Amino acid sequence: MSLFIPGKVLLLFYKLFCTFVYTYSTMSSAELKLNLHQLIDKIQDNKTLSVIYSLFSNSFNVKSSSLSQAEKSAADEGIKSIEKGNFHKHDDVIAEMKKKYPDLH
Predict the structure, then answer these.
(1) DSSP 3-state of 78
(2) Which one, of 13, 8, 16, lies nearest residue 57 by Cα?
(3) pLDDT one-digit tens code per residue, 7-56
(4) Secondary structure (DSSP) of 13-28
(5) Exposure winner among 2, 22, 62, 81, fewest CB in 10 A?
(6) Which tens digits make up the pLDDT trace of 49-90?
(7) How many CB atoms lie within 10 A of CB 44?
(8) CA-to-CA distance for 54 and 13, rounded, in angstroms?
(9) Handedness of CA 44, 50, 55, 56 (dihedral sign)
């Protein structure tokens, strides 16, 4: 399955993933896997599942040389931003989205 994923989506996914890892860094690998499974099980949209599948399957095959200089710079900028504490905790984002889009829950 080949699916094009724009660089901005990958960067957003990376930031969300880093936030997840930071938030759950005290959990064991088994607990992290269980939580990831539970989050994925809640997704009802096949397109979203396809994107997540593609992100995970491609994340193990991406070589840094396959990224453009702009993508590398964007990723580096995102990492630096996260290291400075510029991110949102998962629970805060979920609470905000529930307020903003109450009909989706």
Answers:
(1) helix
(2) 13
(3) 666 677 777 777 766 666 667 788 878 888 888 888 888 888 888 888 77
(4) HHHHHHHHHHHTTTS-
(5) 2
(6) 888 888 777 665 555 557 788 888 888 888 888 888 888 888
(7) 7
(8) 12
(9) positive
Other C-beta atoms closer than 10 Å to the C-beta of 19 total 17
**86 — alpha (psi -120 to 50), left (phi > 0) or beta?**
beta
Rounded alpha-carbon distances, angstroms, from residue 56 to 6, 13, 69 = 15, 10, 22
Nearest to 82 by CA among 13, 35, 33, 26: 13
User: Under a CB-based contact definition with an 8 Å cutoff, are residues 24 and 31 in contact?
Assistant: yes
- Residue carrying structure tokens 């805060």: 92
